[in-house]
């Protein structure tokens, strides 16, 4: 049995779910509370997702994705040649290492108590997106002709990227290949499914968070 501990709204959880759908895996997602002793016993870093597979607990989304590829090599979401596989891995790594500034920028828009150096985050994100733009394909999927792990990572990231755009921020429109890709994915059934699930989970999270903020203000 395979269980993915985490929330569907997390882009790190959503990438594994998207991979699971693409490969037809039997993967149950179970809501998790990262700060609890039970969760920390699975992952001392306290971040979701954690994959549970027959008593084996594995954290870190990209390691989970690679593990699932090793367990279920077909259909391959990594590609056939060394170059293809390198490019497929390069896009997730670029997003995780250099495009994380998206999240503090979004949070700053809704959380007045959140201190962030917005200019520095924006500069870092712009640099990361400039690299991503160079690595992205000009047509079809992100890194190869067919769907790959690069799409499973980029699509959930774009759920939040599109949120930034919806708030009137034009940053992403400076990148034509990324813009083209986002438009193409908006018509892709798998991407739409993942975005729909993320949306439901994110809205529920925001409702809870706003209620907690309100309660804290009244206390
Ligand atoms: N490098 C980790 C990052 C995971 C991560 O940052 N997860 C966030 C959710 S989006 C988390 O668990 N944060 C702690 C929390 O929600 O309490 C991975 O790829 O799995």
From TrEMBL:
**The keyword Transferase appears for this protein:** yes
SUPFAM superfamilies assigned:
GST C-terminal domain-like, Thioredoxin-like
Limits of the GST C-terminal domain: 81-205
Residues forming the GST N-terminal domain are 1-76
Q: Name one Pfam family in it.
A: GST_C
- Which protein is depicted? Glutathione S-transferase family protein
GO MF: transferase activity
GO (cellular component) term, any one: cytoplasm
What are the UniProt keywords, alphabetically? Transferase
Q: Which regions span the lipid bilayer?
A: none
């Amino acid at each position: 049995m395979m269980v993915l501990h985490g929330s569907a709204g997390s882009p790190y959880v959503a990438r594994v779910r998207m991979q699971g759908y693409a490969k037809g895996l039997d993967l149950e997602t179970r809501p998790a509370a990262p700060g609890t002793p039970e969760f920390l016993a699975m992952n001392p870093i306290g971040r979701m997702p954690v994959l549970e597979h027959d008593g084996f607990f594995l954290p870190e989304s990209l390691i989970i994705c690679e593990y699932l590829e090793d367990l279920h090599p077909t259909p391959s979401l990594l590609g056939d040649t060394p170059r293809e596989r390198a490019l497929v891995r390069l896009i997730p790594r670029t997003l995780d290492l250099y495009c994380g500034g998206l999240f503090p920028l979004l949070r700053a828009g809704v959380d007045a108590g959140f201190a962030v150096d917005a200019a520095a985050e924006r500069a870092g994100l712009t640099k990361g997106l400039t690299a991503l733009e160079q690595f992205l394909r000009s047509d079809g999927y992100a890194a190869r002709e067919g769907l790959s792990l690069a799409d499973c990572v980029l699509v959930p990231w774009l759920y939040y990227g599109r949120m930034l755009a919806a708030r009137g921020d034009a940053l992403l429109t400076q990148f034509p290949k990324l813009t083209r890709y986002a438009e193409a994915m908006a018509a892709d059934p798998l991407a739409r499914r993942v975005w729909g699930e993320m949306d439901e989970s994110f809205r529920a999270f925001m409702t809870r968070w706003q209620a907690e903020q309100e309660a804290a203000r009244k206390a």
